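To start, an entry.
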Amino acid sequence: MGGFSLHAGVAVRANQHSKRERLCRYIARPALSEQRLSLTAAGKVRYQLKMPWRNGTTHVVYEPLDFLAKLAALVPRPRVNLTRYHGVFAPNSAQRALVTPAGRGKGRAQSAKAEARTPAEWHSAMTWAQRLKRVFGIDIKTCTACGGTLSIIACIEDPAVIKAILAHLADKVRAVQPRLPPGRAPPAFS
């Protein structure tokens, strides 16, 4: 319908374990059937088609590198959504917040705190501090010495300013280190 192929006639109840397993196996099946794949005596890859083509072709034969190129074309690019949602589950649907467990979507209830956010905050799902904590376990909002709450006051990106700050800190560390008296020889006995 409308250029999309949708089959929503399969339903599985919570207690139908075998039916759920069969559906999961169907969804997770590989792109190619290994049973129809074979090598010829000449070392070429032969794949038996599930249904004959209009011209009567039942098998396709490739050089091994050509076959690998065809397989590589089936691999999706990284970080690309493979599932596209339409209708009420579409990202911009006004009713999405009503049907998703997280309540995300354009139709979610607007709170006073949410209205006070800037446009940049509206578009970001998480702050960098939240991302660092979630991915790397680094909590930059908590002081390691006292456990108090820290706040970010600036983000310095200019390399010249960064070098000046680090040079100043290095000078400060050198100034704090204790100065020992100059070395001397042991006393001479006569």
Observations:
- The chain has a mean pLDDT of 81.
